[in-house]
Amino acid sequence: MDVLIKNGFLVDGSGNKPFMADVAIERDIICGVGHFESSEARSVIDATGKMVTPGFIDGHTHAELYTLKNRQCPNEIYQGISTIVTGQCGLGFAPIKDDQFDDSIKVNSGIFGDYRHYLNHWNSFKEFLNQLDGSAVNVAANVSHNSVRQMALGFENKPLRGAALETAKLVLNQAMEDGALGMSVGLSYYPGGYSDTQELIELCKVVKKHDGLFCPHLRNDDGQIPLNPVEEIVQVVKQTGVRLNMLHYRTRGFENISTLFQPFEELEEQGADIHYEYYPYLVGAGLVLALVPSWAQEGGFSKIMECLQSPDLRPRLIKDMDERHKYFFAEGQTAIINLTKDIYSKEIGKSISDIATEHGEGFSESVIRLLVDNELQVGFTGVENQSEELKKKLYEDQYKLFIDKRYTIPAGLMCHPRAFGSFPRIISQMRDRGVPVEYIIQKLTSIPAAIYKLKDRGLIEVGKKADICILDYDRVKDTATFSDTRKQPDGIETLFVNGLPVMTGRSLTGILSGKALRKGE
Ligand SMILES: [Zn+2]
User: Is 398 in contact with 278 (CB distance < 8 Å)?
Assistant: First the structure.
């Protein structure tokens, strides 16, 4: 054997109670779990007093372009994450046409950044996945609805029908054959949001044919379609039987969490395969362009820039943005600018409200100015300004969702403490509430592996791929904060990806042993 991890306290990811055991690795495979002599191995790691778990699986990231820029993936490795899923929320870049490459990246640069200088072009989903091979983590991906739509209809504002719909179905089918785990949709982003329910049903029939996962980010409830946004998803599942994972489906604190499941109860009783996710913070992050109404996001980068700068359209734009505000922020809430085109911009770290006051302009006017000045490359993070009482209730709700097996907890990316802190945060929160370790680890490993059909991952078991994390369980804790987002968590020490150490003693080794994973791998 190549590596022997000796005397660790093994939590194997299955939900079984922990036990003392050695783990043996041969090449990239776990070849033994039990007791072995040190002399049998080329190298031995003493894990006395430490916990040994499968590498964690982060089911929801927007990290594809960042990963192509920085193959070391420090934020993920530091958290013990060995596999990420990208292409969520309907946002993604494969498949793609050559003439859409720049537009697509610029329009989404408020969340993904603009790393075009680091990228080689690709077209098919297969070529895109191939490029992600050889990062520090394994990368699997959904095909995004935006990509599928752009291949069929560019950035046009109408639902897919007829020939365009047929093209989209062929494109989607090919991406599924190329190894996509499923399809994500982002119905408050564009062009995905220009779809209607019928379009989603037609596309999900293709996803269902491949037993893929349908991952929706909900539409804003603004009357664009006759159904409410959750009911729309219920209809899609009812009519296609597609497996469902509701992205960031969590309470904002105003509703009773039991009502979250009600729309799905009938489907669940009939055996539908339904999952939900939340992440362990109370506010999110996103691209500032999302605050602009749908009609102003038509036509791609140049059209959007023109529209934002048009004096004629300005009154309507401001009025509709003020209207749209409530879909993103609760009463009295604002957002901090976390990303701009100029990485040294003085606006980073300031709230949009403060920027507006400084410039003597309204909130929406500031948003437009920021978008134009930064050529759309501007992102925001929410502000946790809930009362202590409300925060307590929200974290209590998160605990209840955590102990529900249908829920998974992804980490995510982007200038938000979640990028470095989610998994250690969830471990420490739930550990301190007395949730059994075997359940916590199962949530972060074999449960997401099963949902995303990554069959070789998420368990420490003979024959599985050797993605293994070694941690000092009692010390695990996130340290990243909203004012200091890029901080390495405590307690997570060593990580193997495909049998090779990408981190030892909390330091990156520089080894890039991650693979691009196709569905079923
Ligand atoms: Zn989303």
Answer: yes
User: Rounded distance, CA 204 to CA 173, Å?
Assistant: 10
Residue 343 — pLDDT band, cuts 50, 70, 90?
confident
Could you tell me the distance, in angstroms and rounded to a whole number, from the CA of residue 474 to the centre of ligand 1? Answer: 32
Kindly give the distance from the C-alpha atom of residue 88 to the centroid of ligand 1, in angstroms, as a whole number.
7
> What is the distance in A from the centroid of ligand 1 to the CA of 460?
31
State how beta strands 81-86 and 56-58 pair: parallel
Query: How far, in Å, is the centroid of ligand 1 from the Cα of 61?
Result: 9
Q: Are 48 and 6 in contact (CB under 8 A)?
A: yes
CA of 280 to the centre of ligand 1 (A): 15
Per 3-state DSSP, the chain is made up of helix, strand and coil in percentages (nearest 5) of 40, 20, 40
- What is the C-alpha to C-alpha distance for residues 338 and 482, in angstroms, rounded to an integer? 10
What pLDDT is stored for residue 253 in this prediction? 63
Q: Which of 332, 83, 133, 328 is nearest to 222 (CA)?
A: 328
Instruction: Determine the distance separating the centroid of ligand 1 and the alpha carbon of 104, expressed in angstroms.
Output: 17
Using CA atoms, how far residue 97 sits from 24, 153, 297, 353, 354, in Å, is 45, 11, 19, 38, 40
Q: Which residues surround ligand 1, an ion (CB under 5 A)?
A: 89, 217
State the average pLDDT over residues 426-450: 97
